[in-house]
Amino acid sequence: MTIAEFNYIESMLWFAMALTLIINLLLKGHKDAYFTVSIIASLAFIAFGISDIIEASTGAWWRPFSLLALKAVCVVSFIGCFVKYRKIKSAIHTDQ
């Protein structure tokens, strides 16, 4: 398997993660406590999947610089969503 093939497979994983979040949103509706976090995370997963497709054609995750910037924004978004998710989860369990 080449690196490009691996990147294409990896992009499908990120798209599947985004699709899972979107399906979960559709099932639970906009009143779910995690709605905003799920939207942001699904958009970040889609962008990360696109970045892997771009990476497959460039051969590197750091060039062009815009690809590195896109990946950095996605990672920061994932971290921010995780932190917000933990805060919401903690608040929900504290209220019960």
Describe this structure in words.
Keywords: Membrane, Transmembrane, Transmembrane helix. With 96 residues, the chain is an all-alpha fold. The chain has one domain. The protein contains three helices and no strands. The termini are far apart.
Defining key terms:
96 residues; mainly alpha; 3 helices; transmembrane helix; membrane; transmembrane
How much of the sequence lies in strands comes to under 5%
- Based on CA atoms alone, the radius of gyration comes out at 16 Å
Uncertain residue segments: none
Structural class: mainly alpha
Helix content: over 70%
Number of strands: 0
Overall mean confidence score, pLDDT: 95
The succession of helices and strands, N to C, reads HHH
**Number of DSSP helical runs:** 3
- Terminus-to-terminus distance: 50 Å
How would a crystallographer describe the biggest sheet?
none
For the record, the count of structural domains works out to 1
**Overall outline:** elongated
